[in-house]
Each structure stands twice: as structure tokens, then as C-alpha cells.
From TrEMBL:
InterPro entries: ArsR-like_HTH, HTH_ArsR_DNA-bd_dom, WH-like_DNA-bd_sf, WH_DNA-bd_dom, WH_DNA-bd_sf. This is Transcriptional regulator, ArsR family. Residues 15-109 form the HTH arsR-type domain. GO terms for molecular function: DNA-binding transcription factor activity. Pfam families: HTH_34 (PF13601).
Amino acid sequence: MPKIESNSAPFSYDGLDRVIHEKARLGLLTSLMAHPKGLAFADLKQLCGLTDGNLSRHLQVLQEAGLVEVTKGYEGNRPHTSCRLTKTGRRRFLEYLAVLERLVRDAARAAGREETAAGKLRILPA
């Protein structure tokens, strides 16, 4: 199958990284972006509304992709797991956000053209 040039497929959004784009992982990365020093496993679990197993699996995917660093240790006699974005994770997340911003601009521009043409299309605030 021939590769389509990005200029001929402006809405392909190749920068929508599948590792990041999954809902739970997007929430995890957003939480970690807001907490540059990292978060404890329990705090991340609560912020993202995930179970222990789901959080562990998503962190594993992010860790394998080099986006997140997971540190296991002890606080006193209790096990403690903390998570933080790597430099690569921070950069890739910001690149991902730039693609999302372009997607929103493109959609708004397309909706504006349709609205002008049809006179009926309305975008309601969320």
C-alpha cells in the first residue's frame, strides 16, 4: 500500500500517539505533568479513578515506552511506589498536546465553513 504524503492527508494526525491517546494513560500523563516531582501510586490511582491492576498495567505500558519512571521503595516499614514523567515523557506529551491543539483548530475551522455554508451548524460549549 503506498504511503500517503502528509500534505495530501492533512487530517491524518500522525502525532496522536496511541500509547498516550488511550483515555486512562492520557489521564495518568496529565496528572503527572501537573506534579513534576511525581505522585505516589495511591494518589495517582485516586486522581485517575483506576483500580490497582489497571493502574499497574497502564504504568507498565508508559514505562516500557520510556514516558514514566516508577520507583519502588519503603517509607518507614511500608512499601511505597512513586511515579513521575521522564524528560522524554514530558516532551512527547507536549508534542501530543500540540497535535490536539491543531486538531481542535482544524475542526473549528471546518465547522465555521460549514456554518457559513449551511447557516445552521452550532458548536455548543461543553
